[in-house]
Amino acid sequence: MKKLSLLLIMLILGMQIYAQKINGIITNETGEKLPGVTLKLEGTYLITVSDKEGYFSFNNVSAGNYKIEASYIGYETAKKEVSVSGKDIQVDFMLKVSDIMADEVVITALRADLKTPIAFTNIEKEDIEKKNTGRDIPYLLDMTPSVVVTSDAGTGIGYTSMRIRGTDMTRINVTLDGIPLNDSESHGVWWVNMPDFASSVNNIQIQRGAGTSTNGAAAFGANINFVTNNLNKDAYADVNWTYGSFNTRKATYKAGTGLLGNHFTFDARLSKIHSDGFIDRAKSDLESYFVSGAYVDKKNLLKINVFRGTEETYQAWYGVPKDSLVSGRTYNPYSYEKEVDHYTQKHYQMFYTHTFNKNLNLNIALHHTKGEGYYEQFKDKQKFEKYGLDALLIGNDTINETNLIRRKWLDNNFTGGIYSIKYTNRNLNIVLGGSLNKYDGNHFGRIIWAEYSINMNKGYEWYRNIGSKIDMNEYLKVNYSIFPELNLWADFQFRIIDYKMEGIHDDLRNITQEHKYTFFNPKAGVSFDISNNQISYFSFAVANREPSRTNFRDAAEDEIFVPETLYDFEAGYKLALNKLALNLNLYYMDYKNQLILTGEINNVGAYIMSNVSDSYRAGAELSAGIKLTEFAEWKLNVTYSNNKIENLIVYIDNWDTWEQETETYEKTDISFSPDIITGSELSFDLFKGFNASLMSKFVGKQYIDNTSNEERSLDAYFVNNLRLSHTIQTKKVKEINLFLNVNNLFNEIYETNAWVYRYKTGGNEYVFDGYFPQAGINFLAGINLRF
């Protein structure tokens, strides 16, 4: 860490400082000065925003030829070429009002910008397309700060997940064009239900920490906001084929009409992905489509998105026992032919945006998501009483158990609406927004075959319960520039939750209950422009989070959960120079009543989560971009953190007494929270159209449980991936892109996730465990054709 810091300081100090300045005024066609216009100096890291008088400047620009891009919602993007050769240059822009409304207006309510005092990362379409080879969304985000990814099948296809700052997907808020994607009951996001979704994404913003107020689940580690593809004025067609190790195949077909009659557009995508997986039998068959249609004019945008994903994955949830990691890294204990997870999810979304004038616009969206699916299991020697059935009497024999095949189903509906109103003037931005969403989930189980089935009907249903949730939130966001260098930010959210469960769980317990919560989540901060290319900021945020369905379902009879609360302190510094961009963020996330697994069980032996009074995450995130030469660039990030629970009681099963013993820990590490995470991407444009990139990821040691025990931990790992791509342009085909990805280039042997169960018997302690090994060196190659 010290060596890295010294290197960056030397790079900064060693750079020649130039006095040249590029400045100018931004106006519209009537001569009115435009504040808030974003300007980028292409080929550098310099980005600026025009002030309330429409003035902008780029300071300390080195000699050379550049392009300046000026973009502003509601206006056509403009570009100008400039040459810097030893004196200040003035470049003025006159922006023309766009004939059609830009669909970026749809998501501005939830997005952070340069003056928002939080830590965030934007990922643009070009970078998404480079990395989109069929692996799930977490692997596209792997090189961003504080991210750790994992894959059940070991390949990044199928069931995948990620953690940001050590927090898992149940604590990361995810929205698509402002519409919540988190499951209302589990709070999780299952990327496998949206295969090749990245092919329909225009850009992504990750806000680390509590972030800005959003719709849906509470953010206890990050917000991730996806924006679907922008309107295309020109007709197009794209074809993509990928093939690689583990019989991985991906085919994607995209097409769009362009702008018809200056008002209508239609776009469509069809995708199919297959992989056999690194783990035995961990295959995935994934299909999806995405269809979008829009009407647009100067003042209005009406857009409809319909998309569906269908997945069937062979279950690889159990993992590999630790003692088999050397001799059987691909071991999968499931061997029944149809031990699969099968699920289909359909999304229907309608967006309407209206611009009243240049200062005021309105966004409204309605949505409905339909999900239906099951996972199938072969279970041997199952007692009839476990399924609410009587024993069988066959002749003189009493049969108490049977082999059987069962399916556990989820049939759910998620419906609602969101809105936002945004007002902007020279030094004030106000957003008023919110959402109202209703979720209904039917959980039930059926026996589809049994060795002894006389006492049951075909498709016998042994349990059914229903979860119903209403989630409403209202937020108000204010950005006010007291003077050009100082910006104040305030963000207030009220959230109301009403959650009901009714019926019988799979262990035949009646889990009927109801819970209501009202949360107030305030946020405030300040950003200060030290100079034209330096910004510092500080913010404080409060976030509250309700327990999940699992917490309520498995709670002990007398247990009352206290909602979790996060107090998030963030402070940062950003520097942008010609050849260097540097972001430093410090954070302290103080949790009250965080819910964690302690080993405690309820009266039927199910593991439950318990509130712990005090825990925290404290760390520093450093990210940088360095243009080493005209053809070489280095992007890197480093996170160093300390993640602790102040006081913890851990429970261990004693098989001799059938009771639980306890252990007490102080200042113990939070599970799956490595002290250090680094990412590096070295990119070389070796000749026209050809790029080579080496992506490296280091993740420090992670503890599997919250006891800081070395025997129950994941070793640190260092993984390198190589990407080669070559782009060719021809008369008949606009663009041909060939690529080769070599993943895990140096064949690192590592695991990214695990679980452990501790028990005692005969005076000794033992464990059951499961680790998730990742694939060794493997390949993906493909071709993209753009017409």
Task: Give the mean pLDDT.
Answer: 91
Number of helices: 4
Output the radius of gyration: 27 Å
Poorly predicted regions are 1-18
Q: What would the principal axes of the Cα set say about the shape?
A: globular
Structural class: mainly beta
Largest sheet: 22 strands, antiparallel, barrel
Q: N- to C-terminal separation? A: 47 Å
Helical coverage, percent range: under 10%
Strand percentage: over 45%
**Strands, total number:** 44
- Quaternary organisation of the protein chains: single chain
Report on the structure:
The chain is mainly beta. Helix content is 4%, strand content 60%. The protein has four helices and 44 strands. The strands form seven sheets. It has a 22-stranded antiparallel beta barrel. Strands 9-14-15-12-13 form a five-stranded mixed β-sheet. Strands 1, 4, 7 and 8 form a four-stranded mixed β-sheet that branches. A hairpin with a 4-residue loop joins strand 34 and strand 35. The longest helix has 13 residues. The N terminus is likely disordered.
List keywords for this structure.
787 residues, mainly beta, 22-stranded antiparallel β-barrel, disordered N terminus
Topology of this structure?
Layout: H1 2-14, E1 22-28, E2 38-41, E3 47-49, E4 55-58, E5 64-71, E6 78-84, E7 89-90, E8 93-95, E9 119-123, H2 125-131, H3 137-140, E10 147-151, E11 160-164, E12 172-176, E13 179-180, E14 201-208, E15 222-228, E16 236-244, E17 248-256, E18 264-275, E19 284-296, E20 300-314, E21 340-357, E22 360-383, E23 392-394, E24 397-399, E25 401-424, E26 428-450, E27 460-483, E28 486-504, E29 513-531, E30 534-545, H4 549-554, E31 564-576, E32 580-601, E33 607-627, E34 632-654, E35 659-669, E36 676-687, E37 690-699, E38 702-703, E39 713-714, E40 717-728, E41 735-743, E42 751-761, E43 764-773, E44 778-786
Parallel strand pairs: 1-7, 1-8, 12-15, 34-42
Antiparallel strand pairs: 1-4, 2-3, 2-5, 5-6, 9-14, 10-11, 12-13, 14-15, 16-17, 16-44, 17-18, 18-19, 19-20, 20-21, 21-22, 22-25, 23-24, 25-26, 26-27, 27-28, 28-29, 29-30, 30-31, 31-32, 32-33, 33-34, 34-35, 34-36, 36-37, 37-40, 38-39, 40-41, 41-44, 42-43
